[in-house]
Specification:
By secondary structure, chain A is of the alpha/beta class. Chain A contains 16 helices and 13 strands. In chain B, helix 5 (107-132) packs antiparallel against helix 6 (136-164), helix 5 (107-132) crosses helix 12 and helix 8 packs antiparallel against helix 11. The longest helix of chain B is centred in the N-terminal third of the chain and has 29 residues, at 136-164. The radius of gyration of chain B is 32 Å and the shape is elongated. Classes of the chains: A alpha/beta, B alpha/beta. Chains A and B meet through helix 6, helix 8, strand 1, strand 2 and strand 3 of A and helix 6, strand 1, strand 2, helix 9 and helix 10 of B.
């Protein structure tokens, strides 16, 4: 039994570390704000969502996205039912933790303790499984997605009554009320070895059979009551005999627990999405499930695309952006400082991540394409401890991320290579952009390197789109970008005037 | 010499890897070799090569696991120490050892030999346990194991040697003796007997019932493993790896009384089999032949040395079996390294620097000068080590070596621990020098390191010359390390070698010592240049 709420059976993502670029991507795009809203104070929910989102900066699969979108639609429509299932799962996990923490997790030297705990835990888990199954039976009709249908169907099929009865019978036998019987051979030094435990305690010669020397030939001895060394040795032999079966039972209990944990993690993602959905909706931020397009000429379109983390931080709806841009190619954002360039880049990056994760995005409408990876290269804040090594550091980071760039990836760059003079920086940036384009990697970047922007503009590539942050009258910024290239310097004077008063120009 | 006819030898059979014809090299008194071991770092080399045989230090709480055969290891180690301290000047003996060493350096011979050693260790353990086991049935088990391992070890050794075809006469004899021993009916009976009994024991099956304090032993009814049943039931939940909950049972050194009682009753279930085992053991109690036990004790001398040289190769040390020539011929050694530094170099991932030395024609003396820490003392040790190791019949740490075996090696190194008055120390130095000159012969090798440093320069030069004159008369091979440039040009037959300095950065040590006229000022000039205080620099820097 597997929880397959996040991906269809044949596409289950392997466990393991998230793509290495996640650490940078998440801090550059401020995914933490988003995750906090998904967790809504529950660390576990946050962690489960983080795992899904972290994977999302790797290669995306259109099929998984569609699968999750359907399941998420179900979850948003039946939030309280999903919460009820989650509650049972959580209770099962907590019960295992609370009651048996010490006995199974510190097995010490005694297999009999392991067996005893294994029996009790398994008995308890059987109860929860039964409850889960009954709950599932009552919910089947309300869910339309392949993911939830598959889960409910599995629960009913695998946990039928006959199986539960059989499992309980075996637990009874494992108590070995009439003693235990095991087969063995002679090992090195003729020691008993290769112990194989049997169910039951085997044939027994009764006293009259022994008297008449009938029945199975059998040689017995009894420990002397004061033979303490012998008693210890006998108990060790006993433990050796049940060691394997105790292990099998404890591991089975772990597998059952594993199923509950898997289910919890999967459900947590959908509950986290529901939390985020609720927060954004209550802030008046429009959300939608992105429509997927593919192909070389595909275009990425959006209306009212917003940066959800900015909305959550501000507690209100920020300005949205509309655009219609080629999926493959270069997007260059230029313009005034504080003109909303970084916000726009982040809204684009987050939307791409959320699209990859199978989530809704913060836009009125959104059309996008699954890509083979998301990487970021942002200007780092000044580091006082580093003198003159900034360009080194930037180039080193670039060189590190090159390891993970593949055709079809997206490279988001925010003021890259601006730590050196403009001519050098522009040259490096142009070289990088040129190489990435040749490798069919989309470049979405914000830059102040007008030299580079100008070269790209003059080049006249139709796959290069320009957006600029406009300057509004009175120096008050409107965070809405417009098409076009801004080739002048930034508006430092404006900001200066704003801060220090007086007329800027 | 190798072609001496077998009839003149004590016996044509196999006796020993080390003294094939029973004539062991003369062993010197410990006092004679102590200085040598200390000055040439031979003790350190011995430890590095053979230290794995030393008794293992164990915590007093560590009672688990089989006790290793420390008495055996100690005996072997002591024996090897004696052998290592007793180089021979008998060319025939050393050549025969070199032949053995050459064969044992071949993988196709070393591998079966190592397997043999491993088997013999198992056999010793089996015999020891068979003897000490409290349960008779357990003792029988260990005894059969020991016999079986012994039989297989010899079979494997014979097969291995037959395939490899050793060239050393000693190993040819070994193969011949092993083959005839194995062909004898007594040995065949031993092997067949033990294999048959073992097979029957392996087939013994029984069942044990534990009910309260009563334990019953019965024939095995055979049934399904309960574990499989449980696993099948919960198979539907199976997913990735989970924890292993199996308890680890320490292997007790011996059977418990409960186990002993059980196997006693197993013996009652199979009375005939255990009766036959008892009489087999009585009949073959002392089954191992002394010759193979001796082989096992002596193999480490060669095999651990090859291991050590293989380790040394990782630190850049090449090795070879030296070509042995008569005392009048030239000495040529190239790329020789100090084996005492191998472990240190491996630990810090460095490569050792090799140096060449040669004595051609009438040359007998090498004088090494140069800056401190430039590798002078190392070269002195290497010079002694190579001659010592050559006399053991082992490969020396050099790419090429051509030398004659010395009758003795003398060392005279400065002893920092001798804190005496200046005069007392000089006197002591001279006394030691005297006794060396008295004992040395033209075939000896003498290594001296900074001997007269305790006196004035003038005195030291004068004393040095005197000693060199005496040595020239004697005609033995020597190497001096000294800070006295004058000694390097003592006469036209004196070889001058100088420790090199990196011209760019004089603080970098090259450890390269090459043959060239002594020039004590080179290092100082380089250092001055680095700190820009040479004449040219000073003129340029000080404005005129």
């Amino acid at each position: 039994m597997k929880s397959r709420l996040l991906a269809p059976e044949d596409l289950n993502e392997p466990d393991g570390d998230p793509p290495v670029q996640w650490a940078e991507v998440s801090s550059d795009l401020e995914a933490g704000v988003l995750l906090d809203a998904m967790g809504a104070g529950d660390e576990y929910l946050r962690g489960a969502c983080l795992r899904v989102l972290a994977r999302a900066c790797g290669e995306a699969s259109a099929r998984i996205i569609a699968y999750r979108q359907a399941a998420l639609r179900d979850a948003l429509a039946n939030r309280s039912q999903v919460e009820a299932v989650y509650a049972i799962v959580l209770e099962a996990i907590e019960a295992r933790k609370k009651n048996f923490f010490f006995s199974l997790d510190s097995p010490g030297r005694h297999a009999s303790w392991t067996l005893r705990s294994g029996i009790e835990i398994t008995q308890l888990m059987l109860g929860y499984l039964q409850r889960l199954r009954d709950q599932a039976a009552s919910l089947r009709g309300a869910f339309a997605s392949e993911a939830f249908q598959d889960l409910f169907e599995q629960l009913e099929r695998e946990l039928e009554d006959a199986w539960i009865v059989e499992a309980r019978t075996q637990l009874k036998l494992l108590e070995f009320r009439r003693g235990l019987l095991f087969g063995a051979a002679l090992g090195p030094g003729n020691r008993p070895q290769g112990l194989v435990l049997y169910a039951g305690s085997g044939p027994r010669a009764r006293w009259w059979d022994r008297l008449l020397r009938k029945g199975p030939s059998e040689f017995s001895f009894r420990l002397h009551p004061r033979d303490e060394a012998g008693a210890a040795a006998l108990s060790e032999l006993h433990d050796r005999a049940i060691n394997e079966v105790a292990n099998a039972l404890a591991q089975s209990a772990d597998h059952v627990l594993g199923f509950f944990q898997e289910l919890r993690a999967d459900l947590a993602f959908y509950l986290g999405c529901a939390n985020l959905h609720h927060r954004l909706t209550s802030l008046g931020v429009a959300t939608c499930f992105p429509e997927l397009v593919e192909g070389s000429g595909a275009r990425m379109r959006a209306s009212d695309l917003r940066d959800p983390s900015l909305a959550l931080t501000l507690g209100r709806t920020p300005a949205g952006n509309d655009f219609d841009l080629p999926v493959r190619g270069v997007i260059v954002v230029t313009g005034a400082n504080q003109g909303g360039k970084s916000t726009f880049l982040r809204s684009l990056g987050l939307a791409q991540c959320m699209l990859h994760a199978g989530m809704f995005v913060a836009a009125g409408t959104f059309t996008g394409a699954p890509r083979s990876g998301i990487l970021t290269h942002y200007k780092r804040e000044e580091d006082a401890s580093m003198q003159g090594g900034k360009l080194d550091e930037e180039l080193a980071r670039m060189s590190a991320s090159v390891e993970h760039l593949r055709p079809g990836s997206v490279w988001l760059s925010n003021e890259s290579f601006s730590s050196t003079n403009e001519r050098e920086g522009s040259q490096i940036l142009l070289d990088v952009v040129g190489a990435l384009r040749e490798r069919e990697i989309s470049v979405w970047m914000v830059t102040h390197l007008f030299d580079a922007a100008r070269s790209l503009a003059v080049g006249g590539h139709d796959a290069v789109a320009f957006l600029r942050a406009p300057r509004a009258a009175g120096g008050i910024r409107e965070y809405r970008l417009e098409q076009g290239v801004e080739l002048n310097t930034s508006y430092g004077a404006d900001v200066y005037a704003q801060v220090f008063g007086g007329t800027g120009h | 010499m190798d072609e001496t006819s077998p009839s003149t030898q004590a016996s044509s059979g196999f006796h020993s890897l080390l003294s094939p014809d029973g004539q062991a090299p003369v062993r010197r008194a410990v006092e004679d070799t102590r200085a040598l071991f200390q000055d040439l770092f031979l003790e350190r080399i011995f430890e590095a090569a053979y230290g794995s045989l030393a008794p293992r230090r164990r915590s007093p709480y560590d009672s688990q696991g089989p006790q290793d055969d420390e008495p055996w290891r100690t005996e072997v180690l002591e024996n090897l120490r004696n052998v290592f301290a007793s180089p021979s000047s008998d060319v025939a003996l050393v050549r025969e050892r070199q032949d053995v060493a050459r064969d044992l350096a071949r993988d196709d011979i070393a591998t079966p030999m190592r397997r043999f050693q491993a088997s013999m260790a198992v056999m010793r353990e089996g015999k020891r346990r068979a003897h000490k086991a409290w349960s008779r049935i357990e003792g029988h088990g260990w005894f059969l194991d020991a016999v079986q391992v012994y039989c297989h070890a010899l079979e494997d050794l014979q097969a291995g040697l037959e395939r490899a075809r050793p060239e050393a006469r000693t190993l040819e004899r070994l193969l011949a003796d092993v083959s005839s021993y194995r062909a004898a009916p007594e040995h065949a009976a031993l092997c067949q007997g033990v294999d048959g009994l073992r097979r029957e024991l392996d087939e013994v099956r029984y069942a044990v019932r534990i009910a309260g304090d009563e334990v019953s032993v019965l024939k095995d009814p055979g049934s399904e493993d309960f574990r499989t049943v449980v696993e099948r039931t919960f198979a539907r939940f199976r997913r990735g790896a989970v924890r292993d909950y199996r308890c680890k049972f320490g292997t007790n050194e011996w059977m418990s009384n409960v186990e002993a009682n059980i196997v006693d009753r197993v013996a009652l279930l199979y009375p005939d089999l255990f009766g036959r085992i008892r009489s087999f053991r009585a009949e073959h109690d002392d089954f191992a032949d002394d010759r193979w036990l001796c082989l096992d004790r002596e193999l480490p001398f060669f095999l651990l040395w090859s291991d050590f040289l293989r380790r040394a190769a990782k630190a850049g040390v090449e090795s070879c079996l030296p070509k042995l020539v008569d005392p009048a011929s030239d000495t040529e050694v190239s790329d020789a390294c100090d084996l005492a530094l191998v472990d240190q170099a491996l630990g810090s991932d460095r490569r050792l620097v090799g140096n060449d030395f040669a004595l051609q024609g009438a040359e007998r003396m090498i004088v090494v000068t140069g800056p401190n820490h430039g590798g002078k003392t190392t070269l002195a040790r290497v010079f002694g080590q190579v001659h010592h190791i050559a006399g053991l019949g082992l490969a020396v740490p050099a790419r090429n070596a051509c030398l004659s075996l010395p009758d003795r090696i003398f060392t005279h190194f400065e002893r920092s621990e001798d804190i005496a008055t200046q005069r007392g120390k000089l006197q002591d130095d001279l006394v030691r020098m005297r006794s060396i000159l008295d004992a040395a012969s033209p075939r000896s090798v003498i290594v001296m390191n900074e001997v007269f440093s305790s006196t004035s320069l003038e005195d030291a030069v004068w004393l040095g010359r005197r000693v060199m004159e005496r040595l020239r008369e004697l005609g033995c091979r020597c190497l001096f390390v000294t800070f006295l440039d004058e000694l390097a040009s003592f006469d036209s037959d004196t070889v001058s070698m100088v420790a090199l300095v990196d011209s760019g950065d004089p603080t970098v040590r090259t450890y390269k010592v090459i043959r060239k006229p002594s020039d004590g000022k080179a290092y100082a000039r380089a250092l001055a240049s680095k700190y820009r205080v040479t004449r040219e620099w000073l003129l340029r820097r000080i404005a005129s």
